[in-house]
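2024-03-11 09:14:02 INFO receiving multi-entity request
2024-03-11 09:14:02 INFO entity count = two
2024-03-11 09:14:03 INFO echoing inputs for audit
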Amino acid sequence: MDPIKIIEVKESVFADNNADADKLRAEMKAQKTFLLNLMSSPGSGKTTLLKQVLGRLKDEMRIGVMEADIDSDVDAAAILETGVRAIQLHTGGMCHLDADMTRQGVRELGTEDLDLAILENVGNLVCPAEFDTGSVKNAVILSVPEGHDKPLKYPLMFEVADVLMINKVDVLPYFDFDMDKVVEYAHMRHPGLPIFPICAKTGEGVDAFCDWLRAEVKAWNE
Amino acid sequence: MDPIKIIEVKESVFADNNADADKLRAEMKAQKTFLLNLMSSPGSGKTTLLKQVLGRLKDEMRIGVMEADIDSDVDAAAILETGVRAIQLHTGGMCHLDADMTRQGVRELGTEDLDLAILENVGNLVCPAEFDTGSVKNAVILSVPEGHDKPLKYPLMFEVADVLMINKVDVLPYFDFDMDKVVEYAHMRHPGLPIFPICAKTGEGVDAFCDWLRAEVKAWNE
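2024-03-11 09:21:47 INFO inference complete, emitting structure
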């Protein structure tokens, strides 16, 4: 395996992140690349989900992945094993990515020939929700062990989500997690939010999310 | 039950948080109150652990709890059920507490008559590690479902930790979690860090943490 490409992304100099995010979205639209921003708490299963998604979609569309972390390259290494192009972004301690930091990643990854670029954001249920990365859609994972009350405590993350996955449903019997309540609370924050119960480890439910993603990519790239 | 006291803490005006944190520590030292700052990802079990700790210690020392969250008052409500004084701090979207925000909480809680004041920080493995709250010690929880690689990805949190609890050991059989590796990685960040495997739900291992805390409070308040 080639050495993992690690990019130290620099703090943005742009005062207006929303305008910069719109600009990045327009650039990606022009080159027909769909950018997905994947967010969750630490350890909710972002990388494990991505491996399942790549296994299902990599032969029907061209995909690249940017793995963001404070430190380490374990996630990029895991994605490269799937044969998909991937780079590791280091945020230098920062808790989120904004549009310009995402653009730095996009340039290093090289996205002109991609149908789908995926940004795995820093594991954090607070800050990443505050910064538009320039993505077309925001996907959020909440895992069963974290508890069904999280949409009450971290409102913005669930407001900005375009799709929500409830991961680790295989361990539902061992946790006091109420699926009806999490749906109720998530819809309190974002009425009509699509919610997919999944198990990223076994692949259960991942097909349904891939159907959602496939339709979104197709609509964007047409 | 009385209505839950909710404090909207305001962003700090102090440029030098470290100096302000030292000042708060000195104030707490003068009044013989030990301040513990409890940090973790969302859903790692901070409130559940606190309920176990309060059950064990509330009859031998005077304790008060500040529950910080972006929104909701579910945690303060849970603590009040134990009969211990508690207030809810709302951070107005902010991802952490600094020393001045902690001081606002301390004043509203009223700590002059307390041996131990506990701050449950915002669920976040990144930002809270960057701000000295004025606490005497930082306690960190990592739960089994989050994975043993977290000290690699979130280095600062494990560097600033004075004690680490590995929570939810009851579900170890259902997760690929390597206890030896998490100890190795955590000690890479902070050599000699005390580590207690616990199950906050059942109380397993909590006595050992309480012994650690009791000794720390005693040493500080003497």
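2024-03-11 09:21:48 INFO post-check: The radius of gyration of chain B is 16 Å.
2024-03-11 09:21:48 INFO post-check: The CA atoms of residues 168 and 187 of chain B lie 20 Å apart.
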